[in-house]
Amino acid sequence: MKNLALLTDLYEYSMANGFQHYLPQTRAVFDVFFRKVPDKGGLVVAAGLQQIVEQLQDFNFSADDLEYFRSLKLWDEDFLQFLANFKLECQISAVPEGMPVFPREPLITVSGPIAQAQLLETLILNIFNHQSLIATKSRRMTQAAQGKPIMEFGARRAQGPDSALYGTRAAVIGGASSTSDVLAAKKFHIPTAGTMAHSWIEAFPDELSAFRKWAALYPDNAALLVDTYDVLQSGVPHAIQVFQELQAQGHQPLGIRIDSGDIASLTQKSRALLDEAGLTSVKITISNALDENIITSLLQQQAPIDNFGIGEKLITSSSAPVLSGVYKLAAIEQNGQLIPKIKVSNDLAKLTIPGPKKVYRLYYEHTQEAFADVIALADEDLIHSERITVVNSNPLQLQKPVVLTNFVAQPLLHPLDFSQKHPVPTDVFAIQRTSQRWLDELPIETKRLTNPDIYPVYMTEALNKLQKDLIAH
Ligand SMILES: Nc1ncnc2c1ncn2[C@@H]1O[C@H](COP(=O)(O)OP(=O)(O)OP(=O)(O)O)[C@@H](O)[C@H]1O
Ligand SMILES: O=P(O)(O)OC[C@H]1O[C@H](OP(=O)(O)OP(=O)(O)O)[C@H](O)[C@@H]1O
Ligand SMILES: O=C(O)c1cccnc1
What are the boundaries of the signal sequence (predicted)? Predict the structure, then answer.
């Protein structure tokens, strides 16, 4: 793993240098949260924590890094010594990967010496924003696919190697089943998947001999690409011929892939041809710039699709290419006490929620149904409360008090124990399954792909009072 301590905006170092001068060892609390869900969706699937943890476990500066810093002539030797001796002293709490999360709630909190905590901003956001974005997109596509597997095919179209590698991991957290990206498959223990490219068919004198050569090499997992010349006139008939030859030799033919044309009509007609030939177990995979809308439409058209191969629109989240997670100061120590801080912007949407906080998911008693999240002050205990008064946490909406009773509150943020080798779960399919369980707990209307209901994210009355008091002063 590369140490990415320098993958940070210059100003973080400039501030850290200043904090070492003026506020050495002063404790501060920062929150990571986002304000808007991509694609006008109802929720984001949190991802990236494993890579964040790995980076923080190895956050240090080499002699070469320090030489480079020295050459910039921006900071003094004391600061370079501080970097040379850097040992993470921050406490970090975070929502687990795969957790469905909502705007404004703290998802990662970093508490520690301000110079250290400030230095982590850019890298934490870079990883969290990227992986959560792709996990969220993958969740949308998985939901649209209604249980049919999604194969991640995006490496060639991802924005560079890291986006392919970690984007694939995030795509699995969001629901993808396999990947064509061998590096991601090896690194994250994801099943590999793949068919063939048009070049294979073009490289041989004709389609039939290209299929036969492939079948001879891979008799038990031959997936033939049938759209190089003509799907119905040539590709599928040739595939049927080769599959019947394979069957005669005792093999079980795998499938075909269609990558162009009217997918609904081509899959229907191909399915009919395969079935007529007795090849009912041959699977149909489709690809070609698929997204959640096309998948929904194809399934509405009753297209008999078994697998979706999805590249560019998943790995780049091209319809919504940014998750704008931010890292904001919530509190800073003065005379041994944490003083809540707020950013009051001209833009009301950018108002921050001050102070050290906790987040709870509230469930109806005796059910596994979640009905709201509540942001509370760190010293408010909702687990043992029977009745709380809350207001909408969105400053752009009416903040009328609401009384909540008969709930069970579960904290969402969990402290990371850096004394362990693996402070967070690393099995991506276990994370995917847990994520699905958490999604199952949410109201169905909040999970619609279009115009979802807004899942309530409240703040406690006490937190709202603190916010108002700080705005007033
Ligand atoms: N029946 C269908 N309903 C909805 N969308 C479809 C249907 N068939 C194909 N599509 C989608 O429409 C888009 C355009 O398909 P089309 O075959 O015209 O693609 P193309 O990119 O021009 O083809 P090619 O890959 O051959 O260049 C693709 O994203 C494809 O997935
Ligand atoms: O469309 P995506 O969702 O990104 O899926 C992956 C695409 O990658 C391959 O295309 P290739 O690079 O061979 O180019 P093509 O557009 O000519 O098919 C494959 O045939 C898919 O079309
Ligand atoms: O294996 C495939 O079919 C594949 C892999 C990457 C991109 N497109 C297709």
Answer: none
